[in-house]
Design the sequence.
């Protein structure tokens, strides 16, 4: 049975390794095809911001740290700046066309306020701030809301029959992560923008992204055998 770890990481999830009993494996989260394009763009940007703020830099004592923790080290001013960044993320997530219910907004603001108050305590507060991961939690609230609005009913029924710990994270489908990519996760370089915007998952060949969108021009001229030449130039 698939059992998932409790994580607010907007990009990765831990699942039991399919070939190594007792070990876990990282999988990357993508946005499912049932999420409309506008909402998917808002969610993708929100995930990227949350990852930078809460996870992007390094691991210490089993916790991931991002820029939020570094900014919060500056007394008072750093905590205020961190809170403004978290507030800006909330305002950007409000751009979803389906809107955010008042209850979701209140929970997001509660997470922000708790993060700010805890962060005021020198050092220990900064460690607690890294554990709370306000931005990751708020993105999770957005994901849950999008699932509630857009997930097809048949999929909701199917997932409701699974044990809670075995259900996929909200607004997510999983793809495998190679060992090399997993290693790069711990060497984030902001200059090269290695944290890429999550791509939507597609269900069939008709939904595949054209080569032109990947930066390659497709040559549709007939080949010598009167077949299309698929070579990229």
Sequence:
């Amino acid at each position: 049975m698939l059992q998932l770890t409790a994580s607010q990481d907007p990009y990765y999830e831990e699942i039991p390794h399919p070939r190594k009993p007792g070990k876990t494996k990282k999988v990357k989260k993508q946005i499912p095809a049932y999420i409309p394009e506008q909402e998917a763009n808002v969610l993708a940007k929100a995930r990227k911001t949350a990852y930078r703020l809460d996870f992007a830099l390094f691991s210490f004592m089993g916790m991931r740290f991002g820029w939020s923790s570094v900014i919060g080290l500056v007394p008072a001013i750093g905590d205020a700046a961190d809170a403004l960044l978290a507030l800006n993320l909330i305002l950007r997530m409000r751009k979803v066309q389906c809107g955010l219910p008042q209850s979701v907004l209140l929970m997001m603001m509660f997470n922000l306020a708790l993060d700010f108050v805890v962060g005021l305590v020198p050092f220990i507060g900064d460690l607690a701030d890294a554990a709370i991961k306000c931005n990751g939690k708020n993105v999770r609230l957005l994901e849950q809301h999008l699932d509630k609005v857009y997930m097809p009913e048949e999929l909701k029924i199917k997932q409701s029959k699974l044990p809670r710990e075995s259900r996929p994270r909200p607004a997510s489908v999983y793809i495998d992560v190679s060992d090399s990519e997993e290693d790069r996760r711990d060497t984030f370089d902001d200059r090269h923008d290695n944290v890429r915007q999550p791509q939507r998952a597609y269900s069939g060949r008709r939904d595949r992204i054209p080569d032109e969108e990947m930066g390659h021009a497709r040559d549709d001229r007939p080949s010598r055998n009167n077949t299309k030449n698929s070579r990229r130039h």
